[in-house]
Specification:
With 339 residues, this protein is of the alpha+beta class. 27% of the residues lie in helices and 29% in strands.
């Protein structure tokens, strides 16, 4: 057992440590810690396969499964895996060896890999996390609530161009992808939309959590070979707040004229303005100018700042996680979802 002491510690440890003889890796922590360990395991797999990590067309699968025991504030990954954010349930899945293959995204810019991840938000979601990171002295709940209020008070859209490759549900194509074939549908046509967007979400997992019990992307599954692209165009603050509140209710959070949803395989997000709509001059540290041309992204609860276009590509079943299919649990007569 190793206790990490700082961000990036797990990444550096898993680069160097000897993993032969181990059946898996278990992370006790929140979404950021779990995503960092998953990223580290996948980077290690690329090095083992002698793949160039700056440009990966068909990544190698992680060699060891990852167990996630929730100990964070939102625990989206654990909640999506088990249908509940529960330490005992997660632990029992690990002990019983339940394995669930999960889709993973690569995030890259100008041909260079930034990281592996499961979900991302740009615009409101990215700025909210950036604000929260400036107030680490607060408790997680206080920090989150403060950042949401601040981001809503300064709500502004980002001027973007978004290109995406729609999901091809052809069974033959999906079978090839599940087997790791890098070939895609040569007849697929990229689509492009542009305009003023308050938030852009790209999610390869349903992203269940306490504030969104049905999931931020309720129609997405852990390994169906597609991502949800959810776009909130510019609207009034009042209407956007109504949209956010719907995530905690049984009502359809996408039933608004300014919200668009797509099922996709790849996405490119290109900010057309030189700086983020949220100028640092409006923040608590007006003299800090080094990041004025960097756009904040929320990737699995981690802040990623990028200066240009971000390319997100889905890779089916790239890592095994300890858990069980939600569909299998729903179909089962067993009422305890740890069995």
């Amino acid at each position: 057992m190793i206790i990490t002491e700082y961000e990036g510690h797990a990444l550096s440890l898993l680069k160097e440590c000897e993993l032969q003889g181990f059946d898996g890796v278990v992370c006790v922590g929140g979404d950021g810690s779990a995503s960092e360990v998953a990223h580290a395991l996948l980077l290690r797999a690329q090095h083992s396969a002698s793949l160039e990590t700056d440009r990966i067309l068909s990544p190698a699968r992680a060699q060891l499964p990852l167990g996630v025991i929730p100990a964070g504030s939102t625990n989206v990954l654990a909640h999506s895996l088990h249908g509940i954010s529960h330490v005992v349930t997660a632990t029992l899945h690990i002990i019983m060896g339940h394995i669930q293959p999960v889709d993973v995204c690569t995030f890259s810019t100008t041909g260079k890999l930034l990281r592996f991840g499961f979900s991302a938000m740009f615009g409101f979601g990215g700025r909210t996390l950036a604000l929260a990171e400036k107030h680490r002295w607060m408790s997680p709940t206080q920090r989150r609530d403060f950042a949401v209020i601040q981001a809503l008070a300064k709500l502004k859209p980002e001027d973007c161009e978004i290109s995406f490759l729609p999901f091809n549900s052809s069974p033959d194509l999906q079978e090839r992808r599940a087997q790791g074939s890098p070939k895609s549908d040569c007849n697929a046509q990229w689509q492009m939309i542009q305009g003023q967007f308050l938030n852009v979400s790209i999610m390869a997992i349903p992203c269940l959590c306490s504030v969104a019990p049905r999931g931020l992307a309720p129609d997405t599954r852990l390994n169906n070979g597609s991502m949800a692209l959810i776009i909130a165009r510019n609207t009034s603050r009042q209407e956007f707040i109504k949209h956010l509140k719907r995530y905690a209710s049984v009502k359809n959070q996408f039933n608004f004229p300014f919200v668009e949803t797509y099922t996709v395989e790849e996405v490119k997000v290109y900010p057309r303005n030189k700086t983020s709509a949220y100028s640092l001059e409006e923040e608590d540290q007006p003299h800090e100018t080094a990041s004025e041309n960097r756009f904040p992204w929320n990737v699995d609860g981690d802040l990623m700042e990028v200066t240009s276009e971000v390319h997100i590509k889905l890779h089916p079943r790239l890592i095994n996680l300890y858990g069980e299919s939600m569909e299998e649990m729903n179909d089962s007569k067993v009422t305890c979802n740890c069995l």
